[in-house]
Design goal:
The complex is a heterodimer of chains A (423) and B (276). Chain A is mainly beta. Chain A contains 4 helices and 23 strands. The longest helix of chain A is centred in the N-terminal third of the chain and has 19 residues. Classes of the chains: A mainly beta (423), B alpha+beta (276).
Chain lengths: 423, 276
Amino acid sequence: MNKIKFVLFKLSILFCVFLFSEKECLGSLADIVSASEIHGFLETRNGYRLQNDLYEKDMSVMDTRVQLEYFGYADKVDFKYKGDFWSDLITEKVEYDMRELWFFSRPSDFMDIKLGRQVLTWGTGDLVFLNDLFPKDWQSFFLGRDAEYLKAPTDAAKISLFFDIGNIDFVYVPKFKSDRYITGEYISHWNGNEKRISGQDVPFDVSKPDDYFKDDEISLRIYRNINNYEYALYGYFGYWKNPKGSTEKGIKTFPLLNVYGASVRGVLYRGIGNAEIAYYDSQDDKNGLDPLVPNSEMRYLIGYTQDISKDFNISLQYYIEYMLDYSAYRQNVKGQNTRHRARNVITLQITRLLMNQDLELIFSMYYSPTDKDCYLKPYIKYKYSDSLSLETGLNVFFGKDEHTFFAQFKNNTNLYTSIRYSF
Amino acid sequence: MKISKKILTGVVAVFSLLGSYVYAEELLVDAIVKKANDVSLYQGYDCKGKLSLVTVDKQGRKRKRELNVLRKNVEGDTGDQKYYTYFLSPAGVRKMVFMVHKNAGMEKDDDRWLYLPSLDLVKRIAASDKRTSFVGSDFLYEDISGRNIYADTHELIETTKDYYVVKNIPKATENVEFAYYIAYISRKTFLPMKLKYFKQDDICFRVIEVVDVANFVSIQNGKEVVFPTVTRSIARNIETGSFTEMVFSKIKYNSGLKDSLFTERYLRKPPREAIR
C-alpha cells in the first residue's frame, strides 16, 4: 500500500511540474483570464422545528448565503473555484466553506488528472451510498439545505485512466476527510455515552486521524460500459467516515476501514435497474470482539426507477446493512438497544414536474421495517423566473425507539423555506 | 356478352393501373418522408452548434435556455445517433450535461444520462414519454431527436409548387396527444418547413414553423457538400397561448467528433467542443 501512495504522491508532483514548468505558463494564465466566467447565487433559507427540542434552538436553519463560482481554462488546464459565505444564526457566526478549488488536465488520450478541493461521487444508489466513501453532509440534508450540500468536498488527487478493456479512477486523499457528522450543534441525536438524546448541552469529543500522508485515504474504481450496462468494481482503504468507534473514556474515534464492492446499472423492463454490493471490513476489529469498534458489515442495494407518465418519475430501492460477527456484538452490548443483524431500509422517491417544468414536487421517503423508523422529505420548488426560485419543504422523522438511525432525530422535524437569486 | 367482357377487361385494367398508381404513390411518400428525416436529422457524420430557446407564455413571461449540442451518427445504417448536450444557462442548470444514445429501432428505448456537476453525480435517466417538453419549452423531445418515421403511416395529400404536403397518422394512438399531423416538406431541400398537429376533431392545436434556413458547406467523402439547416424555428402551443423561438447558431458539420466524447469520461468533464 505504501508503494501505491508513494507512486501517487510522485504522480501528483509530476503533474504540478507539468502544469507550471510549461514555457507558455504565463501565456496560459492570460488565456485563463480571457476564457473566464463568474457566477453564483444569493439565498436566504429559514427553517423551524415543529415541536420543542430540549437541547436545540427552535430555529433549525437560518442561513443567508452567497455562493461565488469562478471557472477559467487555457490550453492545457481548467481551473475552478467555488466558495460559500453565509451568516448562520444557529452558530451565530459568519461561516465560509470552500467547495471547490481545482486544476484539471488531460495530459494524454488515456489520462485525466484533477487536483485540489473537489466534490466526488460514484456508485449507483439514489441518495444511498455503499461504495462511495467520499464525505457526505447528512446534517445539511436533514436541515433542508439544497441537495448540493449533501456532498462535502475533499482535498484530493484524482487520476483517471481510460483503456479499451476498462477505465480506472484512483483517488488519493492525503489527509482523512470524515463526513460532516451530527455533533449536536444543529441536530439533537441519540448519545450512546449518556444513554439519552442530547444536543448542544453535551460537547461531542472526537479524536480524528489528521496527519498528512499518514492518515490518508485511497479510493479506487474500475469500470466498464458493455452495451450501456455499466459494471464497476470498487475499493477503499481508509477509515469509518463517521465517529463510530470510541475510546474507553467515551471520546469518539474513526477506526480503520477497508471496503470492497461491485455494482451494475442499466435498462431493466421499462426503466433503469441498479444493484450494488459492498463488504465493509472493519480493520481494527477483525472478529467483532471489541465493543468500542464497529463490526464488519455486508451492504446490499437493489433499485429500480421508471417514468410512469409525462414528467412523473418513481424510484424505489431496497437497502440492507448486514452485521457480521453478530453474536460477538450481542455479547458486547449485553442486550441494550441492540440493533438488528440486518438493518433494512426501503427508499421511495416520487418526482412530478408541472407548469412547463417550472414547478417541481418531490416526495422522498426512507423507511426501515427493522428499525421501525422513518424519514420523510416532501418539498416543492418553483422557478418564478430564470434567476429567482422558491422552495419549501419538510423533514419529518419518527419511529418507535429513541436510538435508531432516523427515530433519534424525532425532535428535529422541521419546516423550511428558501428564496434564491442566481446570477 | 362481348360488351360486358370488354367492360370487365377495362375495369380490371383500370383497377390494376390504379393499384400500381397507389403503390407508386406509397413508395413516393415513404421516400419523401425518409429523405426529409435524413435531411433534418442525419446530415454529415457529425454536427455541433448552440441552441437558444426563448419561451414566452400567455402572460408575456420569458424563459431562456441556452445549450451546446454535439451530435454524431453511429456508423452503419441503423439510424442510431449520439447526442451530447451541455447547458450554458439559466443558472439553475448551468454546466449540467444531458447525454443520449438514441436507438432508432422501435423496440428499444434510448439510453440517457444526466450529469449534475455540483454533486459530481452521473444519473441514469429512465426512458420516458418522448412527447414531454424539451427543457420546459414548447418543443418536445421528439421534435429535437426526431419522431421515428415508422411510428406513423404517411399519405401524400397534395403536391404544391413548393411543398409535398404529407398527412401522418400515428400507428399507436395511446402515447401521443395528436390524432394526426400535416407536414409541409420543401420540394427543394426536403426540410419540413411547417408541421401542424391536429386533434380528433380536426382542430389544429400546435404548429411548428421554420423561419430561417441557411446552407452550410462541408466536406464529406472528399467532396464538397451543402447542408441546408434550420437556424430559426418557432413552436406554438395554440391551447396555452405559449410559444418558443429556437435559434441554432455556431453550426459546424463534420468536425470529426470522436465516439469517446459520448462516454462517462466526457460526461463528468465536458470536452472543449462542448463548453465553448
